[in-house]
Amino acid sequence: MQLFGRAKQYFDAGHLSEAEALCGHILRESATDVPALHLAARIAEKTGQVGAAIEFLERAASASPADAAIHADLGFLYGRAGRVEDAAAALQQATALDPQCVEAWVSLGDLRLASGQIQAAARAYCRAALLRPDDAQVFARIGGTCSEPGDIDQLFAECFATFACDQINDNFGGSSFHIDAAGWFNLGFAAQLRGSVDVAIQAYQAALEMQPAHLLARNNLGAALRDAGQIDAAAECFRVAADAEPGAATCHSNLLYVMHFQPGVDPVLLRKEHERWSQRFAAGLLPHDRSLPSAHSIPLMPSALSSGDDPTPSPGTPGEGRGEGDFEHQRRSNSKSPSPQPSPGVPGEGDQHDERALQHLNLECGGRNARSRGCTSAASTGKRHTSIENAPADQRRIPERRLRIGYVSPNFYQHSVGRFLIQLFAHHDREKVETIAYASVRKPDAITNRLRESCDCWVDALGMSDEALAERVRDDRIDILVDLTMHMRDQRLLCFARRPAPIQATYLAYCSTTGLDAINYRLTDPYLDPPGERDAWYVERSMRLPESYWCYEPGIPTPEVNPLPAARRGYITFASLNNFCKVSPAALSLWSQLLAQTPHSRLLLHAHRGAHRQRVLDLFALRGVLPQRIVFVDTVSLAEYFALYQLVDIALDTFPYAGGTTTCDALWMGVPVISLVGDPAFTRGGLSILSNVGLARFATRSPEKYLEEAAELASDLPRLAELRATLRIRLQQSPVMNGPRFAAGLEACYRSMWTRWLIDPVSKPIVRQV
Fold first, then answer.
1. Cα–Cα distance for residue pair 705/238, rounded to 1 Å
2. Which of 653, 647, 608, 646 is CA-nearest to residue 317?
3. SS3 286
4. I need a labelling partner for 722 at 20 to 30 A (CA). Which of 247, 548, 666, 760 fits?
5. Strands 457-460, 375-377: parallel, antiparallel or unpaired by DSSP?
6. How many CB atoms lie within 10 A of CB 243?
7. pLDDT tens, residue by residue, 659-704
């Protein structure tokens, strides 16, 4: 035994050759020494000798047939060697000998999953989860069992039902298992990863019953309720979570964002709640004040998983939301020693969760100053534009000099914000402005590359704290710093609160207010915010773009516009492909009236799987609309999302929160959009876009008019066919797709901000008191 102890010490220290020599000595003395055989197998496996490792374990199993750990390891290695039947037999033997052998259940699940036996894999993983409820990897594997949309609810329901049992005796040797709040939270997060909203809600609620102060569960429950369209309940969850923890900036931001979806929300109260966020987290946060926490300090599932209007059956929806929530766990190795485990990633991003490592942009640097700070400039790509260099102070106050514009966003990728920036970045006048992107992109893609190539400098800010980012912006001598996120996922408002640039503005994420005094301007347009009206609803001064708030680009190759589907099918297909959280009860009620008075029509509706789908069917049934007339669409790729419009005749905009991206996408695919206009800017996206393409008539001012326009259009197939054939051209010829014109208008706004600052650099924007 003393010799084996030395061999084990060598093995643990990584001295494999010395450990192997000692094991060989032991086995020459006693060929059936089980501990030495087991250790020799581990040494052989680590050195890539799988066959030799199997041979050692087979000898150990013969010598000690009741040792579950040996059978578990043997099954694992059989699997690696492709001996599937032998692997299954060994692992089943291990679980029979020791029903609490977590490694055997996990390996059995992996084996079943690799063989396409989805349900068997799920059952094995669920049993492992019962034994080790604080193990994030087990729950990540449960999510991975759902390869087809139809599998998900059934498998998670099975897992949930298993967890819900107080005593579980079958196949567990009569033992009972207690699932704590962490286990319920992990199950909820795994379900949320895979879009199983109902199970996520139940699991988070179970976690909160056991631990009412569980901040992560409360916040993530709010996100799940939002996905199910229960907006008021979601807002209450976020409010409770935000008020329970002094540093819960993310929870409070989630509340602010979801409030925009609440019907009848008072814009004055909305502003006051935004100001409350600012007072809690941003007040006094100047360069010398380092006492307040970063908005990224609490890892939570964000409410805004996508932009305010990502097309949601597109990647990144529940795209789209779902973001910083991490499993609450300590990952145990075979030796049971705890070690930190990376986050499994963001639900809805399309990868297997156990492969989702956060990706940083590791870019080559251009220019001396850039090289020391991770900046890629035009100089490194052969462009004629200069990289960032600190300008002499006496040049900074020249009215017409080239301005340094900094854009801050995590969404420089295939995301609504990223798509709307493509034309702007490409058409900025490089003689007038120098563009610097401060990017916190988790998953760079082709759009990331396009945007990076259009910038003078690209700074990877993903690993920077708010304070470090603010310091970087100061070093770069930015003239105007532009926030593109507001209170959505991965926002950087506490960087802006430190006032790193003399002029700061917010744009594009969604048209509202940040609540920060440190942000001077909010960009808007004359349709979203008519001049002279509504200024008291915003903390920032409203700066209106000349025509359109948006500059549209599909972002990927899309299908050609097809002939009118109704002409071939004989019935009208309405659709709402917006995020379901925007689909208010009032909108559903109006749509049910529309289908009731439009015979044989259909509604294509984006909604995650869950009980909320049945609630929709029940509501429509009250109007006599049969369930088969409602077709639900789950999360799909962006290419598949565009293809869905080839099935659609008329798009129905959501209200009160109107679409932006989805409205442009529908028009691009030849589908007219009926919208309902409200008072706050976030209710007027349809008005802005439709007015700019000459279809203001479809931006209605009352529910009755909305219903009338939609029904009238549905009854006029020749008009629908004409619109379908011409809408893409209309959009291309409108201000919404005129990149040079849009960029010139925005640069004029920047120049106006700069001129005002030169006249009075210390004044704050004039804001009417509420």
1. 35
2. 608
3. coil
4. 548
5. antiparallel
6. 13
7. 999 999 999 999 999 999 999 999 999 999 999 999 999 999 999 9
